[in-house]
Amino acid sequence: MLSGLHVPLVTPFDADGAVDLAALERLAEEVLGDGADGLVALATTAEASALDERERDAVLAVCARVAADRGAPLMVGAGTNDTRTTIARHEALAEVEGVTASLAVVPYYVRPSEAAIVEHFQAVAARSPVPIVVYNIPYRTGRGLGAAALLELAGTDGIVGLKQAVNALDADTLQLLACAPAEFAVLCGDDAFILPLLLMGARGAIAASAHLCTERFAALIAAAAEGRLDEAREHAEALLQLVLALFAEPSPAVLKAMLHEAGRIATPAMRMPLQAASPEGLERARRSAPSRWSAPDPARAR
User: Fold this and answer.
1) Phi, psi of 76 (to 5 degrees)
2) The pLDDT value given to residue 298
3) Which of the listed residues 4, 59, 95, 100 has the most CB atoms within 10 Å of its CB?
4) Contact (Cβ atoms closer than 8 angstroms) between residue 42 and residue 64
5) Which of 108, 109, 135, 139 is catalytic?
6) Do 110 and 80 meet the contact criterion of CB atoms below 8 Å apart?
7) Distance between CA atoms of 67 and 63, rounded to whole angstroms?
């Protein structure tokens, strides 16, 4: 379940600003058809904090239906900065058929201690009906987890993996990869670092960029897993400039602009306070997108 390529789906909006469920269903079908192993619903890329409960339920129902039809795993963003609410959202997942894991972010804004964050996740795991993947993303939450805390969580019943998004291949990540139990899955959460993490023992990636060039992201992960390192590096280098362009503005603005330009979603709209991508951001991403199986440009990649 926790290996390979998982795509955290955007939430498309129509011209009236409503959630476009038909477009969401198409996106889910497309990324799975193009080689993604699983879906992630209601993650950061989905602008989940800007959706009301009715919209969240509708988005989850669409993702669950597509995942079930395809026999694909489905993770669901269910973390908040409040332990009681986080537990309630996890318990509600028992009512959704086909959910295979939650994605639970480190509590944001309130800046608890590392020890308190560990206790938070242990309390959630004790009540959750599904396995938990911890989401460690310090630049969004204001708090990060070091190796000792991550290893304690890796040994906690009900916590089966980690989305690691620290914008580096740092010593804490390396220590976790070296010392975590074999059944604990580390997934890359920074799209530019997929290959380095895979080579050091990560199992796969949760990659928003893989809405685009899905086949090539899947090929990158497969090549790394099978030891075809020259091929894996070729894919990683070819995709790097696109990844950097997609995250040059607050995500998922540029990604939505690219999906809209490709005719895959009706509008590039974001919910305030986020804004749609700038023309310059879209143009940079457009120039950076590799052709399907083209070799990387050495001058661009080095």
Assistant:
1) -130, 125
2) 37
3) 59
4) no
5) 135
6) no
7) 6
pTM of the model: 0.93
- 220 vs 143: CA distance, rounded Å: 31
Check 109, 139, 163, 256 and give the catalytic one: 163
The sign of the CA dihedral 183, 188, 194, 197 is negative
Residue 109: closest CA among 135, 132, 129, 80: 80
**Diameter of the chain measured on Cα atoms:** 52
Match 């509008």 to its residue by tokens: 267
Specify which residues 186 forms β-bridges with: 162
The owner of tokens 């939430």 is: 11
* 161 and 204 Cβ atoms separated by less than 8 Å: no
**Whether residue 295 has pLDDT greater than 50:** no
Pairing outcome for strands 74-77 and 101-105: parallel
In angstroms, the CA 232 to CA 155 distance is 31
**Cβ of 258: how many Cβ atoms within 10 Å?**
26
Q: For residue 252, give the DSSP letter.
A: T
109 flagged as catalytic: no
Peptide linkage before 296 cis (omega within 30 of 0): no
Per-residue pLDDT tens over the stretch 51-108:
999 999 999 999 999 999 999 999 999 999 999 999 999 999 999 999 999 999 999 9
- Which of 222, 288, 285 has its CA nearest to residue 252? 285
163 included as an active-site residue: yes
Cβ distance 103 to 40 under 8 Å? yes
Taking alpha carbons only, the member of 217, 229, 254, 242 closest to residue 297 is: 242
| Cα-only R_g, the chain | 18
- Reported as a single tens digit per residue, the pLDDT across 7-24 is 999 999 999 999 999 999
